[in-house]
């Protein structure tokens, strides 16, 4: 499960791509090593009423592109899959411009004493309504159902479009790379359970927040779950040979990795280690981890 190469430019930044009659996509201007070509905001519905999924970063150019895509249609909901800063900050200015309520994931406050990842989160996010699993956003032409999919973040939701079998997967399943699961909020056990939950469904297509649409969801899910299980076995083999620190494991598990991605790899290894420790399969001694 490697990372997809960036497609050749120009990318369709700011333009509305019509994916199906009820779904349009607008690409934000925040391309990067963790966002691929940028955050993809989805506009769902028709001229009688729209929902905007993952409004993206608080960027004037992107917000202007969204307002152009919306046109004269009433916006009935601004829905966020989670509150990383490339997903939810545009919700507030878009709500101010359209009068729409912010509906979707819960705000996130980390309360642990460990290494903090608050900097990645939108601490200004204030939803008007928090959706629980199975709750509905009802539009004149479309029905969106919230699915709780924790793992990438504890507050992550996906949204199922009942009329067409599409699933908006946020960062839970991406079209270009495996998802970063970064403790303390990211949880590998929850992430695997959420992937397995999607396996029980029959969604036709996935529309992720980053990367191309996924036309064979079940095939991708099998690959993602298999990839994580192989990483887990790799960690257990290394620790059976000798106790090891996270940097030493990253060096062996990710040879030649771009330096920009080393921290994410370390967090992914940590997420696996915490899950294995919780299951009683490994132990730790200071900075070292060892087989139980």
TrEMBL record:
Record-level Gene Ontology MF annotations: hydrolase activity
Gene3D superfamilies membership: Ribonuclease Z/Hydroxyacylglutathione hydrolase-like, Winged helix-like DNA-binding domain superfamily/Winged helix DNA-binding domain
This protein's record includes keyword Zinc-finger: no
InterPro entries, per database record: LACTB2_WH, Metallo-B-lactamas, RibonucZ/Hydroxyglut_hydro, Sec-metab_biosynth-thioest, WH-like_DNA-bd_sf
Domain Metallo-beta-lactamase: 38-210
Top-rank lineage group of the source organism: Bacteria
Signal peptide from the UniProt entry: none
Annotated keywords: Hydrolase
Coiled coil region boundaries: none
Xref: PANTHER family: ENDORIBONUCLEASE LACTB2
Protein name (Swiss-Prot/TrEMBL): MBL fold metallo-hydrolase
Organism: Novosphingobium umbonatum
Organism placement in taxonomy: Bacteria, Pseudomonadati, Pseudomonadota, Alphaproteobacteria, Sphingomonadales
